[in-house]
Amino acid sequence: MGELPPFQRVDKAQLARRFGAAARRYDAHAAFQREVGQALLGWLPAHSDHLLDLGCGTGHFLPMLAARSHRLTALDLSPGMLDEARRRGSGASLLCGDAEALPLPGGQFDTLFSSLALQWCERPERAFTEAGRVLKPGGRLFFSTLLAGSLHELRAAWQAVDGAAHVNRFLERAALERALLAGGLVIERLEVHPWQLRYGAVEGLLRDLKGIGASQVNEAPRGGLGGRARLAALADAYEQNRVDGTLPATYQVCLAVVRRP
């Protein structure tokens, strides 16, 4: 099978800087990320010999992963995130690197854990190929990622304001499955769950997105309304989603277990 076309173009250096700038405040805005990661953690085996946290961020899950593994390695694209992870003192070996070109020798891990990191890849099949390369035969990757339809309320509201999405695109489920196949991995379990957060105002959602560094990576910014006028127009457009006094923000979350043959 030939290489798939890139799903998106990502300036990895800029992405690392963006997450690094958000590292100190990340955990204060990452309730959703903790919920999803906790759900994924429940899928892991009770013990692994050598475990890799792929896209560890601030290292929130490292103490929990350390309790489930004899050896723990953690990798992230952002040096700033790794500085925060280092403060947790989990005993993990920390590495800076890209999921699409892992700076690791092959065949050394029996378990990979990756929660809400792989959606930032340019070519997801490269990340899955790399995951398979560093896994031992029969080793498993447990991952969560976002799929198409995530933040559809915010996307529609922005489009009503200026015709642009202002929200990252995410893979369709079928495209994710094709990328896994192209990466040489076997799907053992794959589930997609809508995950809804509730806000009093759209500003709360925007603060959380900015606070975790998850601003838009795959569409050029567009001019138009100034800051205050744009935000007011966005708030008006988003109001049509209000139910029982709150505004929903819905993510399509994929949880999966895949195996290296």
From TrEMBL:
Q: Where is the Methyltransferase type domain?
A: 52-143
Q: Name one GO molecular function term.
A: S-adenosylmethionine-dependent methyltransferase activity
* Pathway terms, separated by semicolons: Cofactor biosynthesis; biotin biosynthesis
What processes in GO biological process is this protein linked to?
biotin biosynthetic process; methylation
Q: What class of enzyme is it?
A: transferase
EC number from the UniProt entry = 2.1.1.197
Q: Which UniProt keywords apply?
A: Biotin biosynthesis, Methyltransferase, S-adenosyl-L-methionine, Transferase
Q: Per its UniProt record, what InterPro entries does this chain match?
A: BioC, Methyltransf_11, SAM-dependent_MTases_sf
Q: Which reactions fall under this protein's catalytic activity?
A: malonyl-[ACP] + S-adenosyl-L-methionine = malonyl-[ACP] methyl ester + S-adenosyl-L-homocysteine
Q: One Pfam match, by short name? A: Methyltransf_11
In terms of PANTHER family, this protein maps to: TRANS-ACONITATE 2-METHYLTRANSFERASE, TRANS-ACONITATE 2-METHYLTRANSFERASE-RELATED
Q: What does this protein do?
A: Converts the free carboxyl group of a malonyl-thioester to its methyl ester by transfer of a methyl group from S-adenosyl-L-methionine (SAM). It allows to synthesize pimeloyl-ACP via the fatty acid synthetic pathway.
Stated family? Belongs to the methyltransferase superfamily.
The identity of this protein, by name, is: Malonyl-[acyl-carrier protein] O-methyltransferase
